[in-house]
Amino acid sequence: MHVLKFGGSSVANASNIKRVAAIVDTIAKNDMAIVVVSALGGITDLLLQSGKQAAAGSEVYKDYIATIEQRHFEAVKELIPVASQSALLSLVKKTINEIEDVCSGIFLLSEVTPKNLDRLAAYGEWLSSQLIAAAFKQEGVQTQWKDAREFIFTNSDFTNAEVNIAATEKGIRKYFKENKSNVFVVPGFIAADSNGVTTTLGRGGSDYTAALIAAALDANSLQVWKDVSGMMTADPRVAPNAKVIERISYSEAMELSHFGAKVLYPPTIQPVMAKNIPLHIKNTFAPEMPGTVVGGAMKTQETIREHIVSGISSISNIALLSLEGSGMIGIPGFSKRLFEALSKERISVVLITQSSSEHSICVAIDQKYLTVAKKAVDKAFADEITLGKVEPLKEETQLSIVALVGEQMKSLPGVSGRMFGALGRNGINIRAIAQGSSEKNISAVIATDDVRKAINVLHEEFFETVYKQLNLFIVGVGNVGAKLMEQLKQQHAFLKQHMKLNVSVIGISNSKKMLFKEFGISLSGWKELLAAGEPASLPDFVQEVLHRNLRNTIFVDITANTEVAKVYGKLLQRSISVVACNKIAAASPFPEYKKLKELAHIHNARLLFETNVGAALPVIGTLNDLRRSGDEVRSIKAVLSGTLNFVFNNYDGTRKFADVVKQAQEEGYTEPDPRMDLGGVDVMRKILILAREAGFEMDMEDIVNNSFMPASCMQGSVAEFYKCMEAEEAHFKKLLTAAEAENSKLKFVASFENGKASVGLQHIKPGDDLYHLYGKDNVVLFYTARYTEQPLVIKGAGAGADVTASGVFADIMRAANA
Ligand SMILES: NC(=O)c1ccc[n+]([C@@H]2O[C@H](COP(=O)([O-])OP(=O)(O)OC[C@H]3O[C@@H](n4cnc5c(N)ncnc54)[C@H](O)[C@@H]3O)[C@@H](O)[C@H]2O)c1
Ligand SMILES: N[C@@H](CCO)C(=O)O
């Protein structure tokens, strides 16, 4: 024998009821089925609203009743052939008349009592069960209808009555022993007190009705049919990757239900748990899906599941109350008085923490009881507060609880470490923690604004063996940025398959437009989408990054803009990693550079800027490795400008110097403003960054720039700069001729030694380490305590959009710990 319960959406209309009939029919072919039903979807609310509106003197209640009537009439007409409709239609009409009578009484008295609300609400299940029983009969299923009020007995606590278990079990057993049918249909939720007056079991109470029947009759199973395919690892509206839990123990299901997983009404579990009856959660709209099995014969091997954690749940609208004071230390009875004060006001405590110093007790309650709680506790401790032994109750609001639930967590070290580590890496601050010695539930109180992120972070940490989500916000989709987008597109499938990484670009911006897409911007059509995007605003872009509060967020700066470089601090403070191609932050005044590094360290975020020197060449990484392994950089000699190396490699006097510079710009080697390259500032920044990363405290002012550019060319606009270079062709020719006369090449060299740095054009003779440096290549020579005679040399392309984008890509992967 099986007990099946169908919820409101499963029986919301005639076509759904037909599905239910088909499910029941399949079971009834082999076994007896007791079907417990909820009211048609939405009817309970309409009934309660009718009563409340009537009490408030609003005649709107009549419209609600008309809707209730219409919904049931429609269902009858669709389910039952015309010839057989009249009996059922008149039953509905008679019931509607009763509802009208109750409501007009309420209207006249301007008052609705809990008793009246129960009477009204009960009509929902009463009507639906009558209708469903008639529909089953219509489908040829032998069916008997039975009013639950004749065997479910409660006290008189209207709207949330407590069941008299002994009397109820006796009543259920007696009835089903004396009556036989393939199928019974019973209204859920409703019961009767000892005077036979209608009571209800609280919202979700139909599940409980079914569980009571299943337990009393030792049913083979209790099947709770819903509009979802089972209990899920997290709320799928919050965590899109949540999946159905195949098997779960009773206590895990109970923990998850108590902690906000609304699939099961918590009291439902207890009766079936006591009898070890398996509880199946199934989907009426996808009956072929396996659903979730709670409890039952899940012993030995079956209990060993793939995951340590069964599910992640949360409760919102939480307030934290803290009672603190030196007068509490070592004195018994303080916590008792706190809980008594709350309990007298019928305030339930959701979570408790107390440190071993006993200096404070912290409890979490539903935020709606905050004012009452504060008053009650302050009153209870009024004497101690006056004497200064205890401080007035402190309260914090806008909080939520996230909880990991799983029996396998017991005795397994590292689970809470993983939980708090994952939350911490994503900048989620934890306000209070609770874990009982059963180790089935680890709860953390966090800001409500962080709940979505926290659930996704934890889901990823404990369930997503499939892939990790990475969320990118990219500012500066110009030359290098566009290449990065191309590379991200090209590598998307590879990263997903081989690195288990799903990379989504959530936001992009150039100086004109910006664009955001919740689940990722199309990496094929982003240019068109961006062109039609909203006007760019850096503050708004940053606000979006912060507000979206997504897990594993990385901010990527591929501009050369000072304002963009200024936002890193704000992001790092929120544990958002920053990947910068832009050199301005790393070359900013030393205290600012240092502060950013500290922020990254404190807030567990990465600040990476490998492409600041030598594009994608592993220059900064190598330097960091040298330092970490205890080496000491003594001097650096380098050619660090791709643009200048290209220009001097290609300028042979046959073409104008200005034309060669133009070519470098067109090929994407120069800075957005080419004067940064030609004037030496770009190289100054690079040698400064290298010196700093080598451990030296330096600033731009400490670097000597022996510029080869005529000063006149460095004023005015970029167009004027080109014109000036054309006019100064003789100057550049002279530089070339002088070098050739010495059988040398021109190289713009950066040097660092004894804490001093300089940049400038030099004559490089054959045999010099810098001589054979072609195209736009860079070379860096590190002389260190360990590399004394021969330097450590890094050489290769030092500019170009493609290579630079690949360096940014590599930094993104590092920031993702991939
Ligand atoms: N090109 C190279 O070979 C190379 C090599 C290493 C590093 N870099 C660095 O990469 C960065 C970008 O170079 P690029 O060649 O792609 O330049 P680019 O001019 O082609 O692109 C810069 C982009 O930044 C955008 N931008 C500027 N200010 C902005 C703002 N406030 N908000 C939003 N977007 C803004 C511009 O609209 C443009 O899309 C520079 O910092 C450069 O030093 C370039
Ligand atoms: N403009 C830079 C790009 C690399 O930082 C160069 O030419 O070297």
Report on this structure.
- This protein is α/β, with parallel strands linked by helices and 818 residues long.
- It has four domains: 2-227, Carbamate kinase, CATH 3.40.1160; 311-447, 2-Layer Sandwich (VC0802-like), CATH 3.30.2130.10; 468-612, Rossmann fold, CATH 3.40.50.720; 619-799, 2-Layer Sandwich (Dihydrodipicolinate Reductase, domain 2).
- It contains 29 helices and 29 strands.
- Strands 3-4-2-1-7-9-10-8 form an eight-stranded mixed beta sheet, sandwiched between helices.
- Strand 3, helix 6 and strand 4 form a beta-alpha-beta unit.
- Helix 2 (43-55) packs antiparallel against helix 3 and helix 6 crosses helix 7.
- The longest helix has 28 residues, at 82-109.
- The protein is elongated and about 115 Å long.
- The two termini are 53 Å apart.
- The model is unreliable at 299-304 (pLDDT under 50).
- L-homoserine (HSE) is lined by residues 615, 641-643, 669-671, 677, 682, 798-799.
What descriptive keywords fit this protein?
Carbamate kinase; VC0802-like; binds nicotinamide-adenine-dinucleotide; 29 helices; alpha/beta; kinase; 4 domains; Rossmann fold; single chain; 818 residues; 42% helix; binds L-homoserine
Question: How many domains is the backbone divided into?
Answer: 4
What is the CATH class designation of the largest domain? Alpha Beta
| Beta strand % | 15-25%
> Which class best fits the helix and strand makeup?
alpha/beta
Largest sheet: 8 strands, mixed
Helix content: 40-55%
Alpha carbon gap, first and last residue: 53 Å
What is the CA-atom radius of gyration, in angstroms? 37 Å
- Average pLDDT metric: 93
Q: Strand order within the widest sheet?
A: 3-4-2-1-7-9-10-8
Assign the CATH superfamily of the largest domain: Acetylglutamate kinase-like
Extended strand count: 29
CATH level 3 topology of the largest domain: Carbamate kinase
The unreliable regions are 299-304
Which geometry do the CA atoms define? elongated
Chemical compounds bound to the protein: nicotinamide-adenine-dinucleotide, L-homoserine
List the total number of helices. 29
Q: Do you know the CATH architecture of the largest domain?
A: 3-Layer(aba) Sandwich
